[in-house]
Amino acid sequence: MKFGGTSVADYEAMRSVAEIVADRRQKQTLVVASAIGGATDLLMGISKAVTKQDRAGLDTALARLRARHLQIASDICSVFPMTKSGQQQFDDLIKELQRHALNCFDAGEMSPAALDRLLSFGELLSTTLLAEVCRLQGLPAVFFDVRQVLKTDERHNNAQPDLTAISKCASQRLLPLLQEGQVCITQGFIGSNASGDTTTLGRGGSDYSATLLGTALNADVIEIWTDVDGVMSADPRIVHNPKPIPLLSFDEAAELAYFGAKILHPSSLIPAIGKSIPVVVRNTRNPEHRGTTILPRNPAPNPSGVCSISFKRNITVINITSTRMLMAYGFLSKVFEVFNRYRTSVDMISTSEVSVSMTIDDLSCLDEICEALSGYGKIDVVREQCIVCLVGQGLGQLPGIAARVFSSIPDVNLGIISHCLDRDNLGFTIPEAYLEDVVQRLHQQFFADVEVTV
Ligand code: ADP
Ligand code: ASP
Ligand code: MG
After folding, report:
1. How many domains in the chain?
2. CATH classification of the domain holding 193
3. pLDDT (tens digit, 9 = 90+) per residue, 374-426?
4. Ligand nearest to C-alpha 201
5. What confidence tens digit (pLDDT) does each residue in 290-333 have?
6. b/e map 73-106, b = 16+ CB within 10 Å
7. 5 lines ligand 1 (CB under 6 A)
8. How far is the CA of 226 from the centre of ligand 3 (A)?
9. Nearest C-alpha to atom 4 of ligand 2 is from which residue?
10. How far apart are CA 330 and CA 325, in angstroms?
11. Ligand nearest to the backbone CA of 203
């Protein structure tokens, strides 16, 4: 069971989590939690303050973090004193966090490794407190440091999991505790590399931690508890009245996650797909709601063909024009070798006889990539774009889908259009300024008449 930032935002929220966990007591349960809502942003603020040498900014962010956590600790203690070891661990973490932030400030830099260490305090603090709240509710809860199990490569800030090591460590170190009947409370988002240094899986990575651990433990089900009634027909922050989706296939959910639906980390479905473990997305604030169940195949796909609309902001389109492409083979492999060299993934691609357009969202090596590509043709870079993606099982087989999509946005300038044979999505790029209007119009087109089945 994974609980996101809003689900552990304060003492009351943690108490609701403990009640939900207590309901599952007949099963062996691993709880994966995020940092308390807003904590990772505050830690990122500390990192920025270090880089800018802004001492006042650092002190403010540290004070806010301390105050939020101390408030939860004091709420716990107003009911019952924390365990000695829990209190000690909490005090030590607060001190270590301050020491680490100030050391980085004095050194005048925040290296990727130091940033990972800094960010890890968010999840370590929240789980220390959550374990106490769960004990208070009478659960046999133990704090478990996930870095013993969630092994990753060396890449700081966006580490890739080492599935073999995770599986081995999970069965050696975590499974025995679960089999003894302990409710293990552990951290999302963080891991450790082969040298034992702390790494992180990228923002929103706790979902990924949950599916990695659930899969390594051969869980019956992986539950992602968040602040909405499951996956919806579009992001509720953009669309009024989005429809909850009771069932999704792995492919549908993976496409939605990959193309920006913040509710699930882009890679989070991958481990579960490998072992066909159902993933259920549910609402901590409304635990009666059945949420969204994600299964290998959707037994009841949406008859309109579209189950949800997602989008990805901050996309850059790279366009290469070259007459050398005409009738030539091997051109694309040279182009992709450049992206491979700079470890930058391409989301969408479209080609004509003399040009190829691609989208990327990681701009860290953009200049180097453009420099290398300029050897193959004329390069244009178009910024401030976004991808809009319609997802639905069987969408590719329904005649007239493209006409419905594009006739609802006749006045919008489209960039790349992508629709693969036998895939569950239809995506396109547009300038970011149009995004909200386009998503709302498409939602109106495909969901205005859909009945909500709760
Ligand atoms: P958590 O802290 O629990 O991981 P997140 O904020 O990361 O929660 O993800 C949940 C949020 O995702 C929702 O509050 C909602 O604003 C957003 N979201 C984006 N797209 C969707 C969608 N298609 N369905 C539901 N929620 C979505
Ligand atoms: N706390 C991390 C973040 O805010 C990871 C997560 O919440 O999933 O990005
Ligand atoms: Mg999240």
Report:
1. 2
2. 3.40.1160.10
3. 998 999 999 999 999 999 988 878 888 889 999 999 999 999 999 876 678 89
4. 2
5. 999 999 988 888 878 899 999 999 999 999 998 876 667 888 89
6. bebbeeeeebeeebbebbeebbeebeebbbebbe
7. yes
8. 8
9. 40
10. 9
11. 2
